[in-house]
């Protein structure tokens, strides 16, 4: 019997079902694995510590208790959670002899990762709306984005992400897996696992495409529309200094949106005929690990408030830098 298969025999039929998957990941030789382990561990710790630092600074500094930083705090929490869903297991598999994950574990990882990713897709729209209100309606900013409204937007975003991920995961994991159980990926990603199903997956792929359009294309369209309006307002500002200040408040968000949406759109919106496991692993690594690592860097380097809060917490607030 193939490793990872168990026997389940309904009346009048013999059938083997997968009880666990083998995640191939980036494994090669022992030496290469140790090098990859050190590199990915450094990236993971930097990502977690960087995002945790932003959350801590926003919570401790009263001056950062504004809608923009409330949303940034949630983004950091999403990034930190998302990378923690996949990387620790990948690190274990780089050093361990066994690279298996149980069927239930795969189910859970796929669901949580999908939920966090979809939540982040929608959350970028909320952050774009925040910048739109701040620049286009500055006098009504605190009225439009009251704390109640911010809480409602955030809770609704998280709820949508976890709901649509449940649909995606349920449809994927209810497929019959009765043959190969080697997933050519470093975590249980939907398309990689689904390719092992021993039945036609066309209907599931169509459902996933609809979800992707609703959760990726539609939010991205709203973000673009928001920034078109923002750009029109910025161009009407007469002073060069005023235009630069207005643009700088959006530059960090635009950078992060680009880093996230470009690889995610390629992975989930491209036709199945162009599926390439090795390339997909590298691209998903970028929008999962590298984006979580770069987000704190982008926001801290371009944000005087974050840097000021850090100096204040460290007791260097009175020093000249």
TrEMBL record:
Membrane topology: Multi-pass membrane protein
MF annotations from Gene Ontology: G protein-coupled receptor activity; olfactory receptor activity
Gene Ontology cellular-component annotations: plasma membrane
Superkingdom of this protein's organism: Eukaryota
Pfam families linked: 7tm_4
Record keywords, A-Z: Cell membrane, G-protein coupled receptor, Membrane, Olfaction, Receptor, Sensory transduction, Transducer, Transmembrane, Transmembrane helix
Domain G-protein coupled receptors family 1 profile as annotated: residue spans: 50-299
Primary residence: membrane
Compartment list: Cell membrane
Transmembrane segment boundaries: 35-60, 72-96, 108-129, 150-171, 209-230, 251-269, 284-301
PANTHER family: OLFACTORY RECEPTOR
Function: Putative odorant or sperm cell receptor.
This protein's name: G-protein coupled receptors family 1 profile domain-containing protein
